[in-house]
Every structure is written in structure tokens, then in C-alpha cells.
């Protein structure tokens, strides 16, 4: 299920950091790795988890991949979460 994958993806503090950085604008793996105490390959693995969960997008620009937040992925997550804020019948 996409939502469980998304929740697993955002459970990791390094991945939350990556999402917060990407919220500020598109970035490459090297730019993202500069702010984390983990290796560049580890950052790539974290980005793959976020990609698989539909929370980020990647676009090739020459030999680099540029990552951005996936608005569609977060919209699906928000729609699912919003159902819990609605008043249940009988409340």
C-alpha cells in the first residue's frame, strides 16, 4: 500500500531532512549529501526509498539527477490523512 510505504519512508530522520531540504527547492544528491553525516551512496538509498514511496521525483539533467518533492505524492497522503480530521457520525 502506498500510504504504509510513505509512512515508512518519512519515519527515518535522514529522509525527513531530505524532504525538508527539497521543500526549499530542487537539489542534486551531492547538494543533499552536504548537509548529512552519511555517505553519498547512503543519501542515494534514502532518495530511492522516497522515490518508491512517491514522495519525490527525479529528473535527469546531463549526468546529474535533480530531485524535487512530489506534490501528487503528498496530495494523496494529505487526502488520506484528512479523513481522520472529519467528524465521525454520531460525534
TrEMBL record:
Q: Which domain of life is it from?
A: Bacteria
Which SUPFAM superfamilies did the record assign?
A: Winged helix' DNA-binding domain
* InterPro entries, per database record: ArsR-like_HTH (IPR011991), HTH_ArsR_DNA-bd_dom (IPR001845), HTH_MetalResp_TranReg (IPR051081), WH-like_DNA-bd_sf (IPR036388), WH_DNA-bd_sf (IPR036390)
- Which UniProt key words apply to this protein? DNA-binding, Transcription, Transcription regulation
Look up the coiled coil feature and give its residue ranges. none
Query: What residue stretches are annotated with the HTH arsR-type domain?
Result: 1-89
List the signal peptide residues: none
What PANTHER family would the database entry show? TRANSCRIPTIONAL REGULATOR, ARSR FAMILY, TRANSCRIPTIONAL REPRESSOR SDPR
Q: What is this protein called?
A: Metalloregulator ArsR/SmtB family transcription factor
